[in-house]
Amino acid sequence: MKNFDLSLYLVTDRLLSLGRPLEYVVEEAVKGGVTMVQLREKDCSSKEFYRQAITIKACLKPYNIPLIINDRLDIALACEAEGLHIGQYDLPYEVARKILGKNKIIGLSVENVQDVLEANKLDIDYIGISPVFSTPTKTDTAKELGLTGVREISLLSKHPSVGIGGINNSNARDIIQAGADGIAVVSAIMSAADPRLAASQLSDIVHQSKLKV
Ligand code: TZP
Ligand code: MG
């Protein structure tokens, strides 16, 4: 059964973890309230990506938090992740679904209204609205969508949505109020001095904002 909660979605970047082991930051973040984790590691070998995936999978298991692999279908299969996240330039959704089967979670990044209309035709599990704000964490993004974009896209989308890009304590509430089901963050947790505290603050903001939506 697919069971997931997009409320606070941590996307990893080992290069932003201030030298701390990825599994340490991830586990602290989960203890703080992260509901979903995406392993997104660039510039590393397949062997290293696989090793990280196995380590993070084991770390999430006791907490029942789904592990989603960014882009690499082979790694998602190899580590028996709960799902895969694909972007507009990755493997087509149909190919991923055919290989992963109907019980896995597949998320798709959308960068504009046209992408959402196309996504509505697919049996994906969620969309990532990308990027909401510009961010130093990923510079090759499409144009920032802003809160107006989040509002428009979440209204149009037939799938649940999560905003990503430049999200932190000061704007997390706006993203939920604009209609997203959750927030996805990299640096706000990966680079926090105390990742557990950072996650718990973001989690509180998301849950309080949902009560008011
Ligand atoms: N996709 C769109 S923006 C982004 C990704 C992976 C990076 C978001 O990083 P941060 O640090 O939360 O702004
Ligand atoms: Mg990608």
Automatic annotation (TrEMBL):
Pfam families attached to this UniProt entry: TMP-TENI
Cited InterPro entries: Aldolase_TIM (IPR013785), ThiamineP_synth_sf (IPR036206), ThiamineP_synth_TenI (IPR022998), TMP_synthase (IPR034291)
GO biological process: thiamine biosynthetic process; thiamine diphosphate biosynthetic process
Catalytic activity of the protein: 4-methyl-5-(2-phosphooxyethyl)-thiazole + 4-amino-2-methyl-5-(diphosphooxymethyl)pyrimidine + H(+) = thiamine phosphate + diphosphate; 2-[(2R,5Z)-2-carboxy-4-methylthiazol-5(2H)-ylidene]ethyl phosphate + 4-amino-2-methyl-5-(diphosphooxymethyl)pyrimidine + 2 H(+) = thiamine phosphate + CO2 + diphosphate; 2-(2-carboxy-4-methylthiazol-5-yl)ethyl phosphate + 4-amino-2-methyl-5-(diphosphooxymethyl)pyrimidine + 2 H(+) = thiamine phosphate + CO2 + diphosphate
Uppermost EC category: transferase
Cofactor binding note from Swiss-Prot or TrEMBL: Binds 1 Mg(2+) ion per subunit.
Amino-acid positions noted as binding 4-amino-2-methyl-5-(diphosphooxymethyl)pyrimidine in the UniProt annotation, renumbered to this chain: Q38, L39, R40, E41, K42, N70, S109, K138
Residues noted as binding Mg(2+) in the record, renumbered to the chain: D71, D90
Ranges where the Thiamine phosphate synthase/TenI domain occurs: 8-189
Recorded GO MF terms: magnesium ion binding; thiamine-phosphate diphosphorylase activity
UniProt entry keywords in alphabetical sequence: Magnesium, Metal-binding, Thiamine biosynthesis, Transferase
Superkingdom of origin: Bacteria
Listed EC numbers: 2.5.1.3
Biochemical pathway: Cofactor biosynthesis; thiamine diphosphate biosynthesis; thiamine phosphate from 4-amino-2-methyl-5-diphosphomethylpyrimidine and 4-methyl-5-(2-phosphoethyl)-thiazole: step 1/1
PANTHER family documented for this protein: THIAMINE BIOSYNTHETIC BIFUNCTIONAL ENZYME, THIAMINE-PHOSPHATE PYROPHOSPHORYLASE
Protein name: Thiamine-phosphate synthase
Species name: Proteiniphilum saccharofermentans
